[in-house]
Amino acid sequence: MRIDIISAAPDLLESPFNHSIVKRAKEKGLAEIVIHDLRTFGLGNYKQIDDTQFGGGAGMVLMIEPISKCIDALKAERVYDEIIYMTPDAKTLKQSTANTLSLQKNIIILTGHYKGVDQRVRDRYITKRNFYWRLCVNRWRISCSCFSRQYRTLNSGGYWR
Fold it and tell me: Is the model's pTM score more than 0.90?
């Protein structure tokens, strides 16, 4: 079982996945969690990943090009059951959804940043939109971490001891 996480700030995700239950699952080979730095796929000399919104408005969004390159590179390696975008405008993740997702073998999780992502990313790649807490409006990385932990726990039939 593999979880690939695409993030504009991958260093913020390293700690939650290298401690406690998730660490034990990785050590036992029950989970493979790989965090990908979106800037690796950025454009130009500065590895740009963000741009202004097409329709105008305040704030920046993640561009489609780096996300597209990253997802296409991952899909070239293996088949993914779901591509999940963690966003506050989605339905709150419920236990029934988590149970269904726990049966998947390979998933990609895209964590948001800035104002979100280019709408074309949602239209072309995203198969599910989830959000972990209604109150956690701007902390996609925390939601991603919690979701991954819940997913692994359900997938293995319990805690990894």
Answer: no
**What pLDDT sits at residue 159?**
45
DSSP of the chain, one letter per residue?
A: -EEEEEES-THHHHTGGGSHHHHHHHHTTS-EEEEEEGGGG-BTTTTB-EEE-TT--SSEEE-HHHHHHHHHHHHHHS--SEEEEE-TTSPBP-HHHHHHHTT-SEEEEEEP-TT-B-HHHHHHT-SEEEBS-SS-TT-HHHHHHHHHHHHHHHHTTS---
CA distance 7 to 110: 6
Residue 83 pairs in a beta bridge with 108
φ, ψ dihedrals at 140, nearest 5°: -65, -35
Q: Which fold has domain 2-155?
A: Alpha/beta knot (3.40.1280)
What ranges do the domains of the chain cover? Answer: 2-155
Mean pLDDT of 65-72: 97
